[in-house]
From TrEMBL:
Binding-site residues for substrate, renumbered to this chain: I14, Q15, G16, R29, S80
Protein name as it appears in the record: 7-carboxy-7-deazaguanine synthase
Reactions it catalyzes: 6-carboxy-5,6,7,8-tetrahydropterin + H(+) = 7-carboxy-7-carbaguanine + NH4(+)
Gene this chain is encoded by: queE
Biological source species: Sediminibacillus albus
EC number(s) reported in the record: 4.3.99.3
Family: Belongs to the radical SAM superfamily. 7-carboxy-7-deazaguanine synthase family.
Subunit structure: Homodimer.
Amino acid sequence: MNRFPVLEIFGPTIQGEGMVVGRKTMFVRTAGCDYSCAWCDSAFTWDGSAKAEIQKMSAGEILGELQRIGGSHFDHVTISGGNPALLRNLAELVDLLHQEGLEVALETQGSRWQDWFLQIDDLTISPKPPSSGMDTNWDMLDSIINRLSEKDRLFHTSLKVVIFNDEDLHYAEKVHKRYPGTAFFLQVGNENLAENSTTNLTAILLDKYQWLIDRVVNSQTLNHVRVLPQVHTLLWGNKRGV
Ligand SMILES: C[S@@+](CC[C@H](N)C(=O)[O-])C[C@H]1O[C@@H](n2cnc3c(N)ncnc32)[C@H](O)[C@@H]1O
Ligand SMILES: Nc1nc2[nH]cc(C(=O)O)c2c(=O)[nH]1
Ligand code: SF4
Ligand SMILES: [Mg+2]
């Protein structure tokens, strides 16, 4: 039996981002990432600061915990991280959740492929713009989008790029041009990860949202796109587990 490194299981809450924003869901957050984005809002999954909280759980134990805290208040589970795509055997969890009649979403950055991506109901691929400090492996991203397209999974797939500045917007234009057949989301970047007043943060993020909308409105290539804030951050600030 495989065991997976889990840092948090929480919910029900709403999916605060992207293609199924607003969807009532539970979250399973795995530990470990192959990236180290400068502005990662979940750095505790990879920077060692929450190492003591990592639990090695089987798919059955994860389902048990989801049911213990979520009861019968959910029918959708979002797997995020860290990068859950580092876990080759996670198909075991995806299959078990499906057997229970639950829908499954995944958040990943497009640096790794797993065959179980083909089973995901709501697949968000979030390539990282220059402000992250990470380099995009375009061959890998091409191959991920190609495989999903070949298996007719683009209907279940979206691209989501977080934007902090004009250079990031330029990167987003490049991604959208390269994959015009994939639903495309631009997301407001939160650069105030240490702010603990939700009121202050909300005001800042709404300003950023307006800025981002203005920029997208003025772009000639970002047309078939959606622009969103992180709704959970607007509501609950930098709190974990919401
Ligand atoms: C924490 S990541 C985990 C999943 C995966 N590693 C990834 O990056 O897609 C989940 C989502 O949060 C986004 N994100 C991380 N830090 C953020 C920030 N400071 N502001 C806005 N979005 C952020 C990521 O770009 C990603 O789309
Ligand atoms: N409510 C809520 N929505 C989210 N969407 C993506 C999240 C993530 O951290 O991957 C996230 C999260 O942590 N909370
Ligand atoms: S890829 Fe995702 S989890 Fe990893 S460092 Fe970047 S935002 Fe954080
Ligand atoms: Mg988050």
